[in-house]
Amino acid sequence: MAPTIKAKTGRIENERTDAIIFARFQDDSRLQGALAQIDRLTRGRVKPLLTSGEFQGKANQVSVLHMHGEIPAKRVVLVGLGKKSLAKADAFRRAIATASKALRSMEATTFSIAVPERGVAGATLEETSQAITEGSILGLYQFLVYKSKPAIQKKPIRAITLVTPDENSIFAVRAGAERGTIVADAVNAVRDLCNHPSNVVTPTRLAQEAKAIAKSKNVTCTILDRAKARKLGMGAYLGVAQGSHEPPQFIVLEYSGTSKKTKPIALVGKAVTFDTGGISLKPADNMERMKADMTGGAIVLSTIRAIAQLKLPLNVVGIVPATENMPGGQATKPGDILTSLSGKTIEVLNTDAEGRLILADGLAYAMRYKPAMVIDIATLTGAVFVALGSHAVGVLGTDDALINRVTRVGEAIGERAWQLPLWDEYKEQIKSDVADVKNIGGRGGGTITAAAFLSHFVGDCSWVHLDIAGTDWGEAPRHYIPKGPTGIGTRLVIQLLRDVAAKP
Fold it and tell me: Which residue ranges make up each domain of the chain?
């Protein structure tokens, strides 16, 4: 359960809580404001931490002082932001996440954070407050649903308070905290869906999640079952689904936040709730991670919920083709030819390249809305991990201005994206001798040829493709990113939509 977040005006040294947190830059040697007051109240116990070099303010460094009744708080925590000249708003997100986890390990259940009087590293006060809130909630994330003895876990943090001494700042701090809570909850909802095993999160469960989201104001939901998808001609999507006993669910969520005359933005998310590779069976090592091959779809679902809560003045349609990819007796075989919703035929050379097949029909369905732009997000290729590792989302598309917007947003919020080329030469690699296209293009440029395949189903629409297969799973925990499903891409898409709403 996420902690309760609130914002208030007051003097943080008067907070009665388990701990108060101060974030400091590495090159800030001054002792001022509330921290200076605490130093006076404790007869100079804070200053030696700084002058001795014990606390230097290096990124994510944590030092703790126990107060022994000298002030109402039980502890004072200093956390480092690194060098001011290099810092970005994400430094606050990382630092607060680190401090939050440290306090949980000490079995603190409440803490307060001193909000800077002005924003940091070029961010506004509202953006800084959002980063603080996100860092707290994301850093404290745990998935304990299937632990038979959850009592052995550390006590959860129950309440977090952002404190500002300036009454004129409280509205910005509160707005940032509220938005940060919505965004962080969206990320954690994605993490939850991806952490659940595939015998729990089936296509039917995702459809149930979508119906729950449709209870939000201005959101409607349509579910296309196998029969309806077949009637429409979704041969690529159903070709992936036909090996599984789990019924596929083609999910459509529509958010109406502005005039019906305004063209919508289409979001399309890959949702393979378990990917065995089909007849082209995957190796056994790490196959259990394929329960998270529906991350793109989970991000689309969470994004629709978040933008409804944020009341963005946009129209957005979220499309989630959900299915398993299993090697059953009716499964698609290498060499089979499928007819997609668009009418284009696809030669299936490898059934493990299934994500692009379901996205083909998802994108073609999105074109029916005549969208202003379309964004698809998917754990699509292992090749993107080879190219970019686990630190950047691969981004490709037909609209350089939109791609540049994605990369700027990603850099600003700490979810970086890096553009790969989509030249015509790559499209040559997916031409088929017996059909319109084939679903793989050989070993070279695998991420790019996958995007080249998808480009056949978006026409001349402004389109961007986000390949999150390198970033969706954490090998080890770091700052606000846990081991396992990360939810990376969620904040990127939500912030991109906020950016478009502000500057169409």
Answer: 4-169, 196-502
Q: Which of 94, 291, 356, 427 is catalytic?
A: 356
Are 305 and 196 in contact by the 8 Å Cβ rule? The answer is no
CATH no. for 196-502: 3.40.630.10
Would you call 258 exposed, middle or buried from its count of C-beta atoms within 10 A (0-12, 13-18, 19+)? Answer: middle
Is 370 among the residues known to form the active site? no
Residue 355's Cβ-count burial label (10 Å; 0-12, 13-18, 19+) is: buried
For residue 372, the cross-strand partners are none
Backbone angles phi, psi at 44, to 5 degrees: 80, 30
Equal fold, 4-169 vs 196-502: no
Q: What is the mean pLDDT of each run of 10 residues along the chain (504 residues)?
A: 91 96 90 92 93 93 95 97 87 96 95 88 91 97 86 79 94 97 98 98 98 97 98 98 98 97 98 98 96 98 98 98 97 98 98 98 98 98 97 97 97 96 96 98 96 97 98 95 97 98 90
Q: Using H for helix, E for strand and C for coil, what is the string for 470-502?
A: CCCEECCCECCECCEECCCCHHHHHHHHHHHHH
Q: Does domain 4-169 have CATH number 1.20.120.1460?
A: no
| Set 282, 289, 344, 405: catalytic member | 282
Q: Please confirm, yes or no, whether 154 is among the known catalytic residues.
A: no
The model's pTM is: 0.97
